[in-house]
């Protein structure tokens, strides 16, 4: 495993982050989830990402149990706040001071820790003044409950405003967590250049495009039984944007490139996002320990420029690059 600094900070994270978005307390039984966490630790993954909204707080609880007994100082635990939790009442969502201060205490209890290394605004809150949000983050940092602050799926303009306020309040905004893969490159035009200027790293989710870049979905063929594309708990909806023959046919063109590098298709996909120097870590999810071992093989891989160009040529027009897609990811009104 290789490790990279997160933004302009002294914090290092593993190039591969273990995340439990659609798995723990949802698609995967607890014993299997814990086995995947053990596998992550075995391959040198030290960074673990979750959120209070995942499985309505259940994912944090499972992760806390899985990491219990580990040396806390050897881990980087990240969680997020924004989405509706609990009974999903009118103040159980968003980035208000009330929700942030209450949510961090709940997350710490579920994760069985006194602090989180990285606390992230899961989306941008259009209905709460940014000054209120950033002041609340400053306060939880000063209380010692949070070491570093990040965000997720913020636009370049939002990052710039948040970064300026954080600086005024005496703390750093060091990371952004966007979707990023060889098929989904919407951050490259605006978010990445702005982040590089501000000293903000990306911790990217869905580097294998919900499994599409593994090549297991064949154009014109039935969906593999038990795959994410057949999951009615949320997986199928997330993957549907890629499930067309044009995309699936293009993805099959990556197989010879992976073979040339002696990588699996999944390893190629994860290694591809890590070629971007603004990416500090790629988040992987898993339902089986062997998936963790496979994806971790992408750490430390260098893809030659000629093969990066061949990947671009193979995927061609199926790549999504529209920067406006980032703005679309944050709801304009609260759900509750």
TrEMBL record:
Q: Which UniProt keywords apply?
A: NADP, Oxidoreductase
List each copy of the NADP-dependent oxidoreductase domain by range.
16-314
Q: Which domain of life is it from?
A: Bacteria
Xref: SUPFAM superfamilies: NAD(P)-linked oxidoreductase (SSF51430)
Q: Name one GO molecular function term.
A: oxidoreductase activity
Entry's Gene Ontology cellular component terms: cytosol
Which family does the record claim for this protein? Belongs to the shaker potassium channel beta subunit family.
Protein name in the entry? Aldo/keto reductase
